[in-house]
Amino acid sequence: MxxxxxxxYFFYVVLGVTFFLWLIFGLTAIINxxxxxxxxxxxxxxxLPSLVGACVIxxxxxxxxxxxxxxxxxxxxxxxxxxxxxxxxxxxSLNAPGTYHHSxxxxxxxxxxxxxxxxxxxxxxxxxxxxxxxxxxxxxxFIENQTQGDAFGNDISPQKSASIxxxxxxxxxxxxxxxxxxxDICDLIAQHHGTTLVNYFFKSASQVDRKTLREDYRYPxxxxxSKEAGILMIADCAEAAIRSLPSVHESDIEKxxxxxxxxxxxxxxxxxxxxxERELKTIKTSMIETLNVIYHRRIVR
Length: 301
Description:
The chain is mainly alpha-helical. The protein contains 11 helices and no strands.
């Protein structure tokens, strides 16, 4: 109830202002007619439109109040997590700096792409901040947090390695819910890998045992159920892929982003996202431009 008080106050203010304006208009009409400035028989006719307008406004506000209230509450909660000083993100920056830097880059990609197609750019950005927080449990196992010479995971079986990587989604959800992160952000955490295959470890296992099942190396999903989740999936893969290249050129960026989007379409990962072919083209263009800025090569002087 406390969360809805601001919108109730807003409703009462608008109601009061509407009634006040109608009252002023009506009194003005009556005074004008009493001074002989108009036909007395038209007083009711002149006041009626303002009364009808007031009633329409009151009815519309009454119907829209729950929707406006939910929107404002969601927006306020999102803005609360749109803060890099949040304890979870501070911990990520200290314990998993590679993942943190990756998440910041992904947030820039997702925010600009979502804005380009008219999706919720705030949700896309904030969701990107938190999408990999599950890596806090085993940060050294993920390649972006490793330094040259690290050998974490080399003595672990492909199936165990894949299990650790896949589990970062579930662990991220648990951490998010424990910290009362909003449901829409939790949805993005759950959906940002969809049901994709951990291809590297699947291939490694297949070389040893040809009976290896693909399903044992897939993320549990669900697949992206919103445009923001679809954008996050593409941005996450694109940033990670570009980061892994030994050298980055504009042609590499365009080729990589294009291939990632085609792969996600072929794997049916974006079927439930609501993204159209036209929007995917816009997203591709936006991400290519953003990645070119992020990985722009400085001129040697």
